[in-house]
């Protein structure tokens, strides 16, 4: 996955980070995700969310399967343009 535009943060239900293949490091939960960095999600317990402190639109590029949840944790159908 690549965040193309918008402020996002790493989320995880475990204590392990999200591999940022561009920077060569793990992003810990709550860490801001830089735009245009290639991210790898090896487990379904990790992902990203909109930064709740900003009102912004998010654009991401995804290869492979993905699931989108709303702010209350309900699974939703993603908008694809």
Description:
With 81 residues, this protein is mainly β. Helix content is 0%, strand content 36%. The protein has a three-stranded antiparallel β-sheet with strand order 5-2-6, with no helix packed on it. Strand 3 and strand 4 form a beta hairpin.
Helix-strand layout with pairing:
Blueprint: E1 2-5, E2 8-12, E3 18-20, E4 25-27, E5 32-33, E6 46-50, E7 59-61, E8 68-69, E9 75-76
Antiparallel strand pairs: 1-7, 2-5, 2-6, 3-4, 8-9
Overview in brief:
The protein has 81 residues and is mainly beta. It is built from no helices and nine strands.
Topology as H/E string?
EEEEEEEEE
**Uncertain stretches:** none
Shape: globular
Percent of residues in beta strands: 35-45%
Structure annotation, total helices: 0
Report the helical percentage: under 10%
| Largest sheet features | 3 strands, antiparallel
Classification by helices and strands? mainly beta
In total, the number of strands is: 9
Question: Averaged pLDDT, please?
Answer: 87
Neighbour order of strands in the largest sheet: 5-2-6
Q: Taking Cα atoms only, what radius of gyration do you get, to the nearest Å?
A: 12 Å
Distance between the termini: 17 Å
Task: Pick out its properties.
81 residues, three-stranded antiparallel beta sheet, two-stranded antiparallel sheet, 9 strands, 0% helix
């Amino acid at each position: 996955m690549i965040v193309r535009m918008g402020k996002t943060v790493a989320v995880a239900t475990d204590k392990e980070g999200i591999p940022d293949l561009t920077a060569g490091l793990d992003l810990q939960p709550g860490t801001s995700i830089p735009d245009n960095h290639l991210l790898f999600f090896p487990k379904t317990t990790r992902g990203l969310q909109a930064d709740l402190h900003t009102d912004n639109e998010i654009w991401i590029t995804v290869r492979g399967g993905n699931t989108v949840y709303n702010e209350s944790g309900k699974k939703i159908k993603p908008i694809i343009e």
